[in-house]
Recover the amino acids of this structure.
């Protein structure tokens, strides 16, 4: 399984970005997908997840500003980020679990990770 994240960049506070993560190597539609982020000097944290049935789950810190979605025909998961804040600055990673049975996996249940895409928000 390979995951390729893209879409990061430098944006001013209040702006928007759309991150993409293209998956390959197995039947994309059968698995949950997640987004995580890691800011400098901090641990990796959960951001959002989407189940195989497109149910969604968000970290409290991003609810109302981030939207996760998936396009099974394109084997791609997206993260729309609006109203960006400087504290959103981080490397954003997409991930997927090894097993299809996980609806909303815990971080330890994510087996495959993308390489990350850097989001920098200036004030």
């Amino acid at each position: 399984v390979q995951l390729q994240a893209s879409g990061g960049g430098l944006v001013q506070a209040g702006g928007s970005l759309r991150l993409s993560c293209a998956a390959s190597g197995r039947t994309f539609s059968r698995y949950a997908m997640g987004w995580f982020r890691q800011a400098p000097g901090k641990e990796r944290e959960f951001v959002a997840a989407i189940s195989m049935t497109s149910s969604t789950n968000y970290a409290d810190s991003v609810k109302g500003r981030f939207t996760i979605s998936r396009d099974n025909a394109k084997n791609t998961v997206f993260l729309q980020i609006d109203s960006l804040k400087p504290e959103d600055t981080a490397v954003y990673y997409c991930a997927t679990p090894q097993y299809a049975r996980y609806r909303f996996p815990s971080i330890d249940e994510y087996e495959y990770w993308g390489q990350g895409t850097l989001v920098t928000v200036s004030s």
